[in-house]
Amino acid sequence: MNASAEAFSKPSSLFADYSERLSAALREFDWAPVEQLAHDLLDCWRTGRQVFLAGNGGSGGNANHLANDFLYPLSKAHGSGLRVQSLAANPAVMTCLANDEGYDKVFSMQLAVLAREGDLLIVLSGSGNSPNIVAALEEAKAIGMTSYAMLGFSGGKARALADVPIHFRVDDMQIAEDAQMIVGHMLLQWLYGQRDEVNALKSCAADLRRTWRQMKNT
Question: Which sequence spans correspond to the domains of the chain?
Fold first, then answer.
């Protein structure tokens, strides 16, 4: 929440103010790091490298949402889409790690098992200071992953730790979380436009694998 949020007598006054603040955040943003992420995601799609997302609360919900978008709506073709998962999606894993190891390790310990060098991590955080987000970025660096951080407020510790910060300088949690989804949906639409080229590449690779299997079995 915006700590200095004004009290408006009419809901419509708040709606207009909110819309203007969100529009200003987008208008003034440098999209270069988002373009870099777009190309990295495209490369992951082409090569099969895994993509992991992580976030807490509303940002965790956004991570789950975007994991869904990148898995199926990205291409809507059988066997196509990014190899993606949200580290906030499995409540059994989350509560197990939180109970046994501490909530600050719920993302990093999943990465330690699932991720490999060259994979991609995207963290979503308003403050950028959540201990489990910081630990996930540190684990990603140790593994040799590429890390992105979608952030609001000052960007916190995550801004310095991420390989590429995507930082909206807004002191409002809701607008910071809106920006996460807007960026995610922009990426989705751009990647969707590349689906024919990627699917042709994947189809060719699948044909080669089938031929190789047939040769091995003869």
Answer: 25-216
Domain covering 25-216 assigned CATH 3.40.50.10490 in the classification: yes
Tens of pLDDT, residue by residue over 163-175, are 999 999 999 999 9
Q: Exposed, middle or buried by CB within 10 Å (0-12, 13-18, 19+), for 200?
A: exposed
Question: What's the average model confidence in pLDDT over 172-190?
Answer: 98
- Note the pTM of the prediction, 2 decimals: 0.92
pLDDT in tens, 11-51: 999 999 999 999 999 999 999 999 999 999 999 999 999 99
Q: What is the mean pLDDT of the chain?
A: 94
Tell me the three-class secondary structure of the chain, residue by residue. Answer: CCCCCCCCCCHHHHHHHHHHHHHHHHHCCCCHHHHHHHHHHHHHHHHCCEEEEEECHHHHHHHHHHHHHHHCCCCCCCCCCCEEEECCCCHHHHHHHHHHCCHHHCCHHHHHHHCCCCCEEEEEECCCCCHHHHHHHHHHHHHCCEEEEEECCCCHHHHHHCCEEEECCCCCHHHHHHHHHHHHHHHHHHHHCCHHHHHHHHHHHHHHHHHHHHHHCC
